[in-house]
Design goal:
CATH topology: 2-enoyl-CoA Hydratase, Chain A, domain 1
CATH architecture: Alpha-Beta Complex
Distance between the termini: 71 Å
Strand content: 15-25%
Oligomer: single chain
Radius of gyration: 20 Å
CATH class: Alpha Beta
């Protein structure tokens, strides 16, 4: 009998530099995986990381072969939002003059022709939740938690005000935004914030399966359907949000309070715990 053919050696994934050591970007054939990997800062997203995620979306969209992008995080954190302590070890001076939509990946994720799937492995807040919401599908670990804490930081996030009501309804959106309360995965599923919750150990397999399901659909027809779906979102008032972030005093106080692990000055003394909100 002829000797059996030796098993094919596993292919080494193609690794791509996104301009920051805190993002790992690998291509595995028809799938690309971008992993947020900054555990020492609980995966807080620096400007370079935000821009790197945007770049990952653009790179996948530039490839001629159909490829889906999966976004995930390390440990028990998907992404908590932007770095509020001013500690950016991967600072890129080229990005210093850019703000808002120039750096952040939200609109790139929303308008991506290539499928984008978020594999939400844990804490998902702020900009991390926006990324998950605007992905084609967010597959969520049973251990994940969700929060939109921007008003606790003095930030008038017009993106949340535009996107969240389409996901959960105006009453739920108002509740989440004006209180900044936390949801577990089961409540997020019941509310319609996310559509799929899976056992934690099955998260990446489920995300890959969803990405492949999307790749089986006709890409041009899918793009047209996505465009109609996105009409359900409200207008993102970038002018108000940029003013809130860069000119208004509340955001400066909110971020300073976060960095100093205390409550912001606007919290009434009678309910001030003295702790970070």
């Amino acid at each position: 009998m002829p000797d059996p053919k030796p098993a094919a050696a596993p292919q080494t994934p193609e690794r791509i530099d996104l301009g920051t050591r805190f993002l790992r970007f690998e291509r595995h054939g028809h799938l690309a995986i971008c992993t947020i990997d900054r555990p020492a800062a609980r995966n807080a997203l620096s400007s370079s990381m935000y821009f790197g995620i945007k770049r990952a979306v653009e790179i996948v969209n530039s490839w001629p072969d159909p490829t889906a992008l999966i976004l995930t995080g390390v440990g028990d954190v998907f992404a908590p939002g932007g770095e509020l302590r001013g500690k950016e070890e991967d600072r890129n001076p080229v990005l210093d003059h850019l703000t808002g939509a120039d750096i952040t990946p939200f609109e790139a994720v929303r308008h991506s022709f290539a499928p984008v799937v978020s594999a939400v492995n844990g804490i998902c807040q702020g900009g991390g939740l926006l990324i998950a919401m605007l992905s084609d599908v967010a597959v969520v670990s049973e251990r994940a938690t969700f929060r939109a804490p921007e008003l606790l930081r003095g930030i008038a996030d017009s993106g949340y005000a535009a996107y969240l009501p389409a996901h959960v309804g105006i009453a739920n959106a108002r509740d989440l935004l004006v209180t900044g309360r936390k949801l577990d995965a089961s409540e997020a599923l019941r509310m319609g914030l996310v559509s799929r919750v899976v056992p934690h150990e099955q998260l990446m397999d489920a995300a890959r399966a969803v990405a492949e399901d999307i790749l089986r659909t006709a890409p041009e027809a899918r793009m047209m359907v996505k465009r109609i779906l996105h009409d359900g979102y409200g207008h993102v008032d970038r002018m108000s949000m940029d003013w809130s972030l860069w000119r208004a005093g509340e955001a400066r106080e909110g971020m300073t309070a976060f960095a100093e692990k205390r409550s912001p000055a606007w919290v009434p003394k009678s309910i001030d715990s003295g702790k970070r909100l």
